[in-house]
What does this fold into?
Amino acid sequence: MMNSEFRNLPSVDQVLAHENIRHLVESHGYPHSLLVSLARESLDSARRAIAGGSLSPALGEIVETVAGQLLTLETPRLRPVINASGVLLHTNLGRAPLSQEATKAMTVVAADYSNLEFDLRSGRRGSRHVHVEDILCQLTGAEAALVVNNNASGVMLGLTALARRKEVVVSRGQAVEIGGSFRIPDVMRQSGAKLVEVGTTNCTYAADYEQAITPRTAALMRVHSSNFRLVGFVSEATLEDIVDVGSRNNVTVLDDLGSGCFLDTTEFGLDSEPMVQQSVVAGVGVTFFSGDKLVGGPQAGIIVGQKQLVDKLKRHPMARAVRIDKIRLAALIATLVHYLKGEATRKIPVWRMIATPMGEIGRRAELWSQTLDGFGEVIDGETMVGGGSLPGGTLPTKLVAIGEQGKRKKGVNISQIISARLRDMPVPIIGRISEDRLLLDPRSVLPEDDATILAALQNVAADLKKGR
Ligand SMILES: *Cc1c(COP(=O)(O)O)cnc(C)c1O
It folds into this structure.
């Protein structure tokens, strides 16, 4: 019986000869080899199903599977979504959205040749770093700057170029994991630097750094514990203390700021996030931070510091392996210019969201809620900055809450059903679920996307009415 099921399976040639498949090749121009490969895979999986006791699929079914897979393959994978989760820098959702100017700068550079490494005045080879270095120096007060692929690679480059086969002193409370398997002890090992942990998990004093210095010490390093917070009996040497120990012993200080920030977060009602300018003023040798956290730009690792040190990083062979591409460089420059012009809170999406007044958030939440026609209500809540910055940092917001705690339909809570429905929209909408309620936060959604949200919520409300 099973043997006959195997025999009933069409051959690859029969699948390819089917008129629908021939149409795909002849009218749409799909390569024959791709269809052969898809036909084989689909027949293989049918064979496995038969071995498991299934019946042989008809030729038409196999053809349909092949056509379906073709469609899946060519459908764009990376799609825009609307982030209503209330986490502004959501690593799973691509961290910072870019300003219009940054987006345009990327498109312009992507579509054409550019003077990326070409000095237009001399007609000779130039450096990609010159385009961004002066802006970073203006913004931070640093002598020199360099931009690489991301902050993880920036820190790795810094340690490799400055501390290989030497010791780097780090507070035990800062030998942390950032997430995504970026752990300070592992990064040190990879770069060939020897981690010397000092102090205790909760307390590290300036004297701890001082006592750990030996002739093999290359640097003292501070790591901003960006994604967690120690509370209670806690004492960390300040950056100024560490720099003071460093300068008295002629040892440089490295600072992994993580997010990095140019604006004072406390002015927006947030906890204090260390600013890049503060590290430079304090006298840090090299400071490392991300382009796509609170800077609000594209993925990048930004490095600023003393010229003689930054030059070592620029010249190191690893710099080539982690260099930034022209498209993100263009977006980063456009983003940094917003800070230069003092327009960051008006132009950079993450800062626009942070700076949105409560009144406006409340009005939008009411509008969203009204569209739900009784199925949603506006409640007080908190927006998280996220992305490994400001661990305890939240902003007040108004949330639209859908669903009721404990209320289930066929064992599934209504918030789960609506959440899945919103993810299935042409532009998926991502909320967050808390205590059986789906929460939508207008603060993490740009007002430009409100029309899309309202249309989706109208849809949801209509469905809910039918289901009543
Ligand atoms: C986020 C973070 C990193 C990694 O930065 P990426 O830009 O994601 O590579 C490194 N160090 C700290 C302290 C961070 O918070």
